[in-house]
Amino acid sequence: MKPLGESIKKVLLLLDESMDYEPLLVMGLDLAGSPKRSTGYAFLNLSLEAEVGLVYTDDEIINLAKARLPKAIAIDAPLFLPRGRGSLEERSAAHLRDCDKELLRRGIKFFPVTLGPMRALTKRGMALSAALKALGFVVVETFPGGAQDVMSIPRRKDLLGLRRGLESLGVKAIKAYASEHELDALTCALVAYLYLIGEVEALGSPDEGFLYLPKHGGLRSRELNR
Predict the structure, then answer these.
(1) Phi/psi at 142 (5° precision)
(2) 71-85 per-residue burial string, b: 16 or more CB within 10 A, e: under 16
(3) How many independent structural domains does the chain possess?
(4) What is the domain range of residue 147?
(5) What is the per-residue pLDDT across 47-56, written as a single tens digit (0 to 9) for each?
(6) How far is CA 83 from CA 8, 100, 139, 148, 201, in A?
(7) Residue 211 neighbours by CB under 8 Å, 6+ apart
(8) How far apart are CA 60 and CA 158, in angstroms?
(9) Checking CA distances to 112, which of 24, 102, 118, 189 falls within 20 to 30 Å?
(10) Which has the closest alpha carbon to 53: 182, 189, 197, 188?
(11) What is the predicted pLDDT for the residue at 107?
């Protein structure tokens, strides 16, 4: 595999033959279920240089996006409901989405959208996604734990291992003592980065929605750094 930065440059050149384009930037969000708890955010540029931080409210998140204009935003939160369920409040036997069923099939651990605390996260995620899309942003759902599994790097229980894993994939300038929320947001930003060049796999179905993960086996550090 060629270095990701070179691949994205070629994509942008194809999109804008005049070569007069804004610097590519993508955004990742490790969304909290409540604005009272911190949400991690991350930006990645064309060189995979990272910027991470914490915010709380939806307005803070939207203002960040409006100020930085990322080409894609990947959010760690359910952004759509299971087929057959009209709302989270509705009594229904529909608890798993097609993407959730595929995660189960692959042995990737996750929490269903209708499970206790996930309800608040799902409600917030769907509302935030709609607000960002209304402003013209490209918004996709991802799951950093699943992405980390696919990329063969540790999940956030091993914070140092996760940081080193992201660095082994080419991510640079991660701030010292980045929190678990910031590193998960950075994983989401990496998925947004890969989304732009088609190096992701869409789990789900067109009539329900998709969750995006890196293509399996396509993100080995030895390949990225050739």
Answers:
(1) -145, 175
(2) bbbbbbbbbbbbeeb
(3) 1
(4) 4-224
(5) 899 999 999 9
(6) 34, 12, 20, 27, 20
(7) 97, 99, 103, 141, 142, 143, 146, 202, 203, 204
(8) 29
(9) 189
(10) 182
(11) 86
